[in-house]
Design a protein that fits this description.
The chain has 469 residues and is α+β, with helices and mostly antiparallel strands. The chain has a single domain, classed as Outer membrane efflux proteins (OEP), CATH 1.20.1600. The protein has 9 helices and 7 strands; from the N terminus they run H-E-H-H-E-E-E-H-H-H-E-H-E-E-H-H. Strands 2, 3, 4, 6 and 7 form a 5-stranded antiparallel β-sheet that branches. Strand 3 and strand 4 form a beta hairpin. Helix 2 packs across helix 4 and helix 4 packs antiparallel against helix 9. The longest helix is centred in the C-terminal third of the chain and has 69 residues.
């Protein structure tokens, strides 16, 4: 028996691997630059958000990666793809089954079967047990290609999960910075409103004493309401940012209704422990690490293997079925060697619906063409994302510098305008204009800081998760 098995082992290996009718895979050729300038950037850094040096931000991202519902969906899809791969691989091996049967049939007539009398009746006993195995031989690589397509499906699903993780992390970082900006704007509006309300009391006394005109006191009151409206707008935006961030974190509806209570640094955003400085040049092959590109290429490979599956349908299919069992009219005699039996059968099936199979091949070939276009679009989109993000990061940094200088100049101008007004050398309209310009510049500076920091997060997102110096 052992000798027979040793002779069959090479045949088993040959039948298991078979041959493949799938075309050789080649990555689509694209005109891609080697790098943007010279750079030594290498592998991606997983926890790229830690470069900002903010412990609160780090804790929020960690919470989001655990609690976010999109992440939970992506994880579940990976489990499904893993199970699907296991099912596809199982088709390469024989399928085994075990059966057992027992019956006792009574009749008043002799039906030509062996009976036993009991209480005047005739009974027929029948007991059997068998082990069966069937195997679809993979001569043309149909099941192997299907298993490889499933493996590529798993790779694509894992890449999609990584893309969700990356997007959730980037979304949390951006939301946190915008929450910081709105908190800063709220603090500015509160401070301005308080100052204007105190100034209104002073100028009301001056108006009552006839020192200022009706136009001045009405302008001062209108200015107070402008600040009050700005405070309300900042609080609306802050609340929306809090709830959006809470959803990203996966917090419960009860927590959302009660208030997110997510602490943001406000004006401290302008002085984070560290603001990442991006490399001046990035090698193009770093984009191959982007999850969406990995997903697109894995899907393309799966489509390539599916062509082999479809082509194999043109050729005959072979299967073997083996049966080993025992049958007896007495249960205690079932295991006797004289009651054993065995059977081995083979089957060959030749398809005749070639037109239908041809349509199936045409369909999967078209799916591959679609996958090629998807891959190329994804690569183009990746280069666009990186270019746009790098330009935004540079220009928002310039915007922050310009607005910072503008705030400094307007703050100094505000002091001069107040002195001129108090000494009667300028109208209140001049003072009001300077004060309003300063308030607007301060609010714009808060938004620019958020845009600058968010643009750095977008670069990390565009690079597929960061960079390593």
């Amino acid at each position: 028996m052992l000798k027979k098995f040793s002779l069959l082992a090479p045949l088993f290996a040959l039948l298991l691997t078979g041959c493949s009718l799938a075309p050789d895979y080649q990555r689509p050729e694209m005109d891609i630059p080697q790098t943007w300038e010279a750079s030594q950037s290498q592998a991606l850094q997983n926890k790229w958000w830690e470069r900002f040096g903010d412990p609160t931000l780090n804790a929020l991202v960690d919470e989001a990666l655990v609690g976010n519902k999109n992440v939970a969906q992506a994880m579940a899809r990976v489990e499904q793809a893993q199970a699907s791969l296991g099912v596809a691989r199982d088709a390469l091996f024989p399928t085994a089954a075990a059966t057992a049967d027992g019956s006792r049939t009574g009749t008043r007539r002799d039906a030509g079967t062996i009976y036993k009398k009991q209480n005047g009746e005739r009974f027929a006993n029948s007991f059997s047990g068998a082990l069966a195995a069937s195997w679809n031989l993979d001569f043309w690589g149909k099941y192997w290609n299907a298993a490889e397509a499933a493996r590529m499906g798993l790779v694509a699903t894992e890449a999609a999960r990584d893309n969700v993780l990356l997007s959730v992390a980037a979304g949390t970082v951006e939301s946190y910075f915008w929450l910081s900006a709105y908190t800063w704007q709220e603090e500015l509006a509160q401070s301005v409103l308080k100052n204007r309300e105190e100034s209104l009391k002073v100028y009301q006394d001056r108006f009552d004493n006839g020192q200022i005109s009706d136009l001045d006191i009405l302008s001062i009151k209108a200015n107070v309401e402008t600040a009050r409206n700005a405070l309300a707008s900042a609080r609306i935006a802050k609340n929306a940012a809090e709830t959006s961030l809470a959803v990203l974190l996966g917090r419960s509806p009860a927590e959302l209704l009660a208030g997110a209570r997510i602490k943001a640094p406000g004006a401290l955003m302008a002085s984070l422990a560290s603001t990442p400085v991006l490399p001046s040049g990035i090698p193009s092959d770093i984009l191959n690490m982007r999850p969406d590109i990995r997903q697109a290429e894995a899907s393309l490979k799966a489509a390539n293997y599916n062509i082999g599956v479809a082509r194999a349908a043109f050729l005959p299919s072979f299967s073997l079925t083996g049966l080993l069992g025992s049958a007896s009219i007495e249960l205690n005699e079932l295991l006797r060697s004289s009651n054993h039996y065995a059977a081995l059968s083979g089957n060959i099936s030749l398809p005749l619906n070639f037109w239908t199979i041809k349509r199936g091949v045409t369909m999967v070939e078209a799916q591959k063409e679609e996958a090629i276009a998807t891959y190329e679009l994804t690569v183009l989109g990746a280069f666009k994302d990186v270019r746009d993000a790098l330009v935004s990061q540079t220009e928002y940094a310039n915007s922050v510098k310009a607005l910072t200088r503008q705030v400094e100049y307007l703050d100094a101008a505000m002091g001069h305008a107040r002195t001129r007004y108090d000494n009667g050398f300028a109208s209140y309209l001049e003072l009001l204009t300077t004060e309003s310009n300063l308030f607007s510049a301060q609010q714009a500076l808060a938004a620019a800081h958020a845009q600058h920091l968010a643009s750095i997060a977008k670069v990390c997102l565009a690079l597929g998760g960061g960079w390593q110096d």
